[in-house]
Amino acid sequence: MIYYLDKAEWPTIPVPHDCVINSVSLSDNFLILDFQQGISIHDFIQHIRPNSKSLTIKIHLIDTFDIYQMKIQKFPKFKRLYAEIDFDKLVSLVKRKRVEYLYHYVAYQSLIVNLYYNANIILDLRTDYIEYIWKV
């Protein structure tokens, strides 16, 4: 299923809430998120695709994108700050940790994705379409 973000009306894109990401990669202007096997155990997936075993999201990039990770500053006061990280750091986090897809915000040619593993990770993407590939 393809969702276009450069049209007059924005689509309602399903959110694979709490689903674990197995890998993140870049290929030919696409950011590719591959999810774990057995994705249908999550209640959200059971409502829209009960027979799906996994999911791949391909986000077509029209510009560079930014990645931010939340850091907690303990002294002098507890503050939550977002520091920019590079793509290689995100790839290593996904390989080593249990990074989950929480939610996303949709706007005209823009998608903001919130991931979580031990702290929030924000992907600020400029995109014109997103493709969901459901694996049965």
How do the helices and strands follow one another from N- to C-terminus?
A: EEEHEEEHEEEE
Please tell me the overall pLDDT.
89
Kindly state the number of beta strands: 10
Radius of gyration: 15 Å
Taking the alpha carbons of the first and last residues, their distance comes to 14 Å
Strand content: over 45%
Which structural class best describes the helix and strand composition?
mainly beta
Put simply, the count of helices is 2
Low-confidence stretches: none
Roughly how much helix do the residues carry, as a percent range? Answer: 10-25%
- Shape assignment: globular
**Main sheet properties:** 10 strands, antiparallel
Strand order of the largest sheet: 1-10-4-3-2-7-8-9-5-6
Could you give a short description of this structure?
The protein has 136 residues and is mainly beta. The protein is built from 2 helices and 10 strands, in the order E-E-E-H-E-E-E-H-E-E-E-E. The chain has helices spanning 43-48, 87-96; strands spanning 2-4, 19-27, 30-35, 54-61, 66-73, 79-85, 100-107, 110-116, 120-125, 127-135.
